[in-house]
């Protein structure tokens, strides 16, 4: 399996990251364990989660995903040094537990470490910008955790170009650890937020990029063609916004590439992301072993220049 450098972190990851948002939501404990083991057995090495996953599910309060990953790690399915664990801090967990203050980060990381049953987190991300806290304070907290060995690398999620630049400036001015990784929303449909200034900054600063919503909440799997297709599905309401003219153009392009390659739509959408020089790896999740087997194939799918150009044009 090809391992790609994750920016300047010194960490190397396989070109696909498993999305842990499904653990404790649409994947129960046994299914989660089977998916994680299957993913790592296939040669991949990175799983993404967050302290808030999956608080949105009925009866959940957050931390469920980390807890399941921790149980899986503890089971010995893979040695800890072979697994790259990505988690995040900052989302609202209720009762004032949110944001990027030093006080909360120091507490939140301990909570995540306990749930994950590990001594360190490979990549710790600030989940959302927090305008109420200076970058200097947030980065100082992350720097301290790095010095303590509790985290190996840091990054930010959902930052625009101006915010990322401001964080880099604050790090340089104050001698603090900088965000070496960005996790943006980016896929064949949602491109405007990342392409351009933000992607250029990541390229210039050698920042690793791990994309989320890489399959546009499942829309790019090709299984949602009309509003009727979304009925009763866990992410159905999230998919409806993609059922416009642009979405139909993208589906048509995916149909054509699928006919030419024999690959499934999701595999093609992920391979398109993997082919982008600025992208280190996309995140994608599965809730069954057949879905996982399809995702795994994306890493060995090489799209032709014509196929990439077709897909590029469809999403404009």
Walk me through this protein's architecture.
GO terms for molecular function: oxidoreductase activity. It comes from Metarhizobium album. InterPro entries: AKR_Detox_Biosynth, NAD(P)_OxRdtase_dom_sf, NADP_OxRdtase_dom. With 316 residues, the protein is of the alpha/beta class. It has a single domain, classed as NADP-dependent oxidoreductase domain (TIM Barrel). The protein contains 11 helices and 10 strands. The strands form 2 sheets. It has an 8-stranded parallel beta barrel with strand order 3-4-5-6-7-8-9-10, surrounded by 4 helices. Helix 1 packs parallel to helix 10. The chain is globular and about 50 Å long. The relative contact order is 0.13.
Number of domains: 1
Name the overall outline. Answer: globular
What is the element string, with H for helices and E for strands? EEEHEHEHEHEHEHEHHHEHH
CATH topology: TIM Barrel
**Individual helix count:** 11
Residue share in β-strands: 5-15%
CATH superfamily label = NADP-dependent oxidoreductase domain
Distance between the termini: 32 Å
Mean pLDDT across all amino acids: 96
The percent of residues in helical segments reads 25-40%
Which architecture name does CATH use? Answer: Alpha-Beta Barrel
Runs with pLDDT <50, length 5+? none
Number of strands: 10
CATH class: Alpha Beta
Q: Tell me the radius of gyration.
A: 19 Å
Please give the largest β-sheet.
8 strands, parallel, barrel
Strand order of the largest sheet: 3-4-5-6-7-8-9-10
Strand-pairing-aware structural class? alpha/beta
GO molecular function: oxidoreductase activity
InterPro entries: AKR_Detox_Biosynth (IPR050523), NAD(P)_OxRdtase_dom_sf (IPR036812), NADP_OxRdtase_dom (IPR023210)
Protein name: Alcohol dehydrogenase
Domain NADP-dependent oxidoreductase: 15-314
């Amino acid at each position: 399996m090809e391992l790609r450098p994750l920016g300047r972190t010194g960490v190397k990851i396989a070109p696909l990251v498993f999305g842990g948002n499904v653990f404790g939501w649409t994947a129960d404990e046994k299914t989660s364990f089977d998916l994680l083991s299957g993913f790592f057995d296939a040669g991949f090495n990175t799983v993404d989660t967050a302290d808030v996953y999956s608080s949105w599910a009925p009866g959940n309060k957050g931390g469920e995903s980390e807890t399941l990953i921790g149980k899986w790690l503890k089971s010995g399915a893979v040695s800890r040094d072979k697994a790259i664990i990505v988690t995040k801090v900052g989302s609202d967990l209720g009762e004032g537990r949110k944001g990027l203050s030093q006080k909360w980060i120091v507490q939140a990381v301990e909570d995540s470490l306990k749930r994950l049953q590990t001594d360190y987190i490979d990549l710790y991300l600030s989940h959302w910008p927090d305008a109420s806290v200076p970058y200097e304070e947030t980065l100082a907290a992350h720097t301290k955790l790095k010095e303590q060995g509790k985290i190996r690398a840091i990054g930010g999620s959902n930052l625009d170009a101006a915010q990322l630049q401001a964080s880099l400036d604050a790090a340089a001015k104050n001698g603090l650890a900088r965000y070496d990784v960005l996790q943006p929303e980016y896929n064949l449909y949602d491109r405007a937020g990342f392409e351009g200034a933000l992607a250029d900054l990541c390229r210039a600063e050698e920042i690793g990029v791990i994309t989320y919503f890489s399959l546009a909440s499942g829309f790019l799997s090709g299984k949602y063609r009309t509003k009727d297709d979304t009925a009763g599905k866990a992410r159905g309401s999230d998919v409806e916004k993609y059922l416009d003219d642009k979405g139909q153009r993208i589906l048509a392009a995916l149909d054509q590439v699928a006919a030419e390659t024999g690959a499934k739509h999701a595999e093609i959408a992920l391979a398109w992301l993997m082919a982008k020089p600025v992208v280190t790896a996309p995140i994608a999740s599965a809730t069954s072993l057949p879905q996982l087997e399809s995702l795994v194939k994306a890493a060995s799918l090489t799209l032709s220049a014509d196929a990439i150009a077709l897909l590029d044009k469809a999403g404009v």
